[in-house]
Design goal:
The protein is 23% helix and 30% strand. The protein has helices at 2-34, 285-294, 312-319, 333-336, 340-358, 383-393, 414-421, 440-455; strands at residues 38-40, 46-48, 59-62, 71-73, 83-91, 94-103, 109-112, 115-118, 129-133, 138-142, 152-162, 167-177, 185-187, 192-195, 208-210, 218-222, 232-241, 247-257, 272-278, 300-304, 323-328, 364-365, 397-398, 403-404, 428-434, 459-460.
Length: 476
């Protein structure tokens, strides 16, 4: 009986023990399974530098909820720099840290170009690499040492390697040419006028360098001797150098002048007529010059580039004592008023023509159509409002007129031109004429107009830095 009882007790204890063990195992398995409320596809994600990382994409599932309920903190992740960064996942008041590795495993992307060198030059492989793209700093080198000491073509392998060891290599050709001994050529060198105190003056404006081989010769200018704060004449030296080391230099004069406006907007008490002629030189200009000589008077010619056969008359007019001003090279409204850059391109062309003819660039200008023109509005609204201020800021002065012969409106007869031209009784008269081809009646009317004003006690003069400057009201 006791044995049976003992045996039953043992069985009971055994069952209890097994049950406890099963419960413990079940609890352990449940705890193991639920120790993290978030299941991930990977706990060691990587992302390529500069690429996007989608933090939700590594979540496989969550316990008792939705993936959308997971809060993610990526504020410490920097996708632009290689490294390891913590990303925090918060769910059911638990925070799990996942370390994201930002890596660079991509080789540099680039293209190679063939280059030319002159015999004796060294070669920088970086000069052959274009369109380089990579997430980190790179170094560029030849796959091996190459011999560039002989004329001919050398095939080279150029390697581009980033700081993480990713690299690629490509082939190109170095064309070794015969030794280059020719110096580059400086163009556009001319004497300069600088306003007192203008420390931002551009000494390289309109200066170019060309070379028969080097597409990018360098140019420097030595302005050490220029005292921009003291009126006077100074010399500067331009130096151009090509890739072969050949040098060209040129010296020009820089005149530092007082920083004051040219001319005056107030008329003087003296009775003066400033005859001004636009649109020349032409086949009629020499006749005009002869008439002015007959009366021993001077005038002003606002010149254009319309008639190449008569360019030499710009120089002749200046040598006869007349004032030369800039009008327009093309006189094509649709071109010159299409933009500010287009206007200055045209102005610079006529300036260069004057430089060739008279050795300097005049600072007196007249806008085609005058500053009050409205035709410019068709091509660039507001351009005149800008230009009238900008040309003065650049050291020019623009001249409109306060008397008009009317010869710009068509072919008028001598009587009409004389009538219009003699209407003014201002002290200082800036009188508009044209000496373009076809203005024969202007030439015929000119002597009588001169005599009219002389009889009233007027003298005649060319425009200078102190003369009266008429400005129209700007309409654009």
């Amino acid at each position: 009986m006791n044995e049976w009882i003992n045996e039953k007790k043992n069985k009971t204890y055994t069952l209890l023990g097994v049950s406890v063990i099963l419960i413990f195992i079940g609890y352990f398995l449940y705890s193991w399974y639920t120790r993290w409320d978030i299941k991930f596809y990977t706990r060691t994600p990587t992302v390529e530098v500069h690429h996007e990382f989608e933090p939700m994409s590594i979540i496989k599932s969550v316990v008792n909820g939705n993936i959308e309920d997971v809060e993610i903190d990526v504020t410490k992740l920097n996708k632009e720099i290689v490294g390891k960064y913590p990303v925090l996942y918060k769910y059911n008041n638990k925070v799990i840290t996942i370390v994201v590795s930002v890596v660079d495993t991509q080789p540099p992307i680039f293209e190679l170009i063939n280059i030319e060198i002159d015999l004796g030059m060294s070669v920088d492989p970086a000069d052959m690499v274009v369109d380089l793209q990579d997430a980190s700093d790179t170094k560029i080198y030849f796959k091996k040492n190459y011999d560039f000491s002989k004329v001919g073509d050398v095939e080279v392998l150029v390697v581009v390697e980033d700081e993480y060891g990713n690299k690629d290599e490509k082939k190109a050709i170095v064309h070794v040419l015969e030794e280059h001994k020719e110096a580059p050529e400086l163009q556009g060198i001319k004497d300069l006028t600088v306003r007192l105190g203008d420390v931002n003056f551009n000494y390289f404006k309109d200066i170019t360098v060309i070379d028969t081989r080097d597409p990018n010769p360098t140019i420097t200018v030595d302005v050490e001797n220029v005292n921009i704060h003291e009126v006077g004449d100074y010399e500067i030296t331009y130096t151009a150098r090509n890739r072969a080391g050949n040098i060209a230099s040129a010296i020009c004069k820089v005149s530092v002048v007082e920083n004051k406006p040219i001319g005056t907007l107030e008329q003087s008490d003296e009775k003066i007529v400033f005859l001004t002629f636009d649109d020349g030189p032409s086949k009629l200009t020499e006749e005009v010059l002869d008439i002015l000589d007959q009366f021993d008077i001077t005038a002003t010619f606002f010149v254009t580039g319309l008639n190449p056969n008569y360019f030499h008359l710009i120089k002749e007019a200046e040598q006869r004592g007349h004032t030369i001003g800039l009008h327009s090279y093309s006189h094509n409204y649709s071109e010159i008023y299409s933009s500010v850059d287009a206007y200055y391109h045209d102005l610079n062309r006529i300036a260069e023509l004057c430089l060739q003819q008279i050795g300097y660039v005049p600072v007196y200008i007249r806008f085609p159509g005058g500053s009050s023109n409205t035709v410019s509005k068709r091509y660039k609204p507001g351009i005149m409002s800008y230009l009238v201020e900008d040309v003065i800021a650049k050291g020019y002065q623009y001249y409109d007129w306060n008397a008009n012969s009317g010869d710009g409106s068509g072919t008028l007869d001598v009587v009409d031109i004389t009538t219009y031209a003699t209407l003014s009784n201002a002290n200082n008269i800036v009188l508009l004429f044209h000496d373009a081809n076809g203005k024969h009646t202007t030439v015929e009317a000119l002597p009588g107009i001169i005599q009219h004003y002389q009889s009233l006690g007027y003298r005649f003069a060319g425009i200078d830095d102190d003369s009266y400057v008429p400005h129209h009201a700007v309409n654009n």
